[in-house]
Amino acid sequence: MEIIISQTYEQMSKSAAKVVAEVINQKPNAVLGLATGSTPLGLYKELIRMHKEEGLDFSHVTTFNLDEYVGLAADHPQSYHYFMWENLFKHINIPRENIHIPSGTARNYRAFCQWYEERIVQCGGIDLQVLGIGADGHIAFNEPGSSLGSRTRLKTLAEQTINDNARFFERKEDVPIYAITMGVGTILEAREIILLANGANKAEAVAAAIEGPVSSMITASALQMHPHVQIFLDEEAASKLKMRKYYDWIQEKKPGSPRS
Ligand code: F6R
């Protein structure tokens, strides 16, 4: 697990965008796993800039989003379909048919979730998964207590998540209670993972995920089991890390480290 701490949200977003761009440049038909929420907005903004100014090409890229609220149609302004379209997809040259987002209005959720899992495999698996983290330590909507081997499924949201996400809705009562989410097991199968977190309200969850025990109570801690994870933080989100000095030392010494 590599911890990269930036002074600001903008710097954090740019560092993470470089990783995404590198994956696409090395493998133009890369399969990306994508997150919604406030955290990746800066990353998506930078990817859009790279597309427009530097020719970053998404024409062969395939994407799978982590989650969607149950009951919200794709054109609902608070749906993750709408979010992704507004904040990334409409600004880049990704073909519509390469985009996958869990359906919030499937008639048979169980069958839909199985199809989603199979589709990921059909597309060759996820090369790079982008994650945020909830204040309760969740990744995707894998709330505390989710099996670390869980797969894509319908999940009941925790009260803290409903409270946290109420800011996007007119009234708290409008926040859906259920979501379709990739499982922790699904996420861990990605070849490479980046997790981004900013702000003081994430500091405890970040410290627990990185330095605490692996536990289904903080599903982000499962990333400790993955061989290729980079965590991008701003100062505030990093403020509760005990090994902070060591993480900085590693980054400082990285350029001179033996290559083979
Ligand atoms: C969203 C997702 C969630 C968010 C997390 C943080 O697709 O999977 O796990 O990443 O809830 O949300 P923000 O970034 O809004 O703080």
Q: What structural category do the secondary elements indicate?
A: alpha/beta
Ranges where pLDDT stays below 50 over 5 or more residues in a row are none
Report how far the terminal alpha carbons are from each other. 19 Å
Shape: globular
Helix share bin = 25-40%
Q: What small-molecule ligands were found?
A: fructose -6-phosphate
How would a textbook summarize the main sheet?
A: 7 strands, parallel
- Tally the beta strands: 10
Strand content: 15-25%
State the order of secondary-structure elements, H for helix, E for strand: EHEHEEHEHEEHEHEHEH
Q: Report Rg.
A: 17 Å
Spatial sequence of strands, sheet with the most strands: 1-10-9-6-2-3-5
Query: Helix tally?
Result: 8
| Average predicted local confidence, pLDDT | 97
